[in-house]
Amino acid sequence: FSQKRVVPVFPPDRWSSALNTTARGSLQIERDILAKSQFPDEVTKPDGYVLRRPAEWR
């Protein structure tokens, strides 16, 4: 995949200087877009098991 371009996407207020200088470009995801992309607080699997999002992720 030597011809593929990799563009790192950093979360709000975080980034890697080493990765940023190695890559040809980078993006920073906005806080509101990140919030919209999260799963709901609870997700029920087909077998009935309930997955709960940790409080610190809310």
Tally the structural domains: 1
From N to C, what is the helix and strand string?
EHEHEE
Q: Pairing-aware structural class of the strands and helices?
A: alpha+beta
Strand order, sheet with most strands: 1-2
| E-strand count | 4
Q: How much of the residues is beta strand, in percent?
A: 15-25%
Cα-based radius of gyration, to the nearest Å: 16 Å
**Termini Cα gap:** 37 Å
Shape: elongated
Overall mean confidence score, pLDDT: 89
Question: What do these coordinates show?
Answer:
This protein is of the alpha+beta class. It has one domain. It is 21% helix and 17% strand.
List the helices and strands and how they pair.
Layout: E1 9-10, H1 17-22, E2 27-28, H2 31-36, E3 42-44, E4 50-52
Parallel strand pairs: 1-2
Antiparallel strand pairs: 3-4
Summarize the structure.
By secondary structure, the protein is of the alpha+beta class. It has helices spanning 17-22, 31-36; strands at residues 9-10, 27-28, 42-44, 50-52.
Output the keywords.
21% helix; 2 helices; two-stranded antiparallel ribbon; alpha+beta; 58 residues; elongated
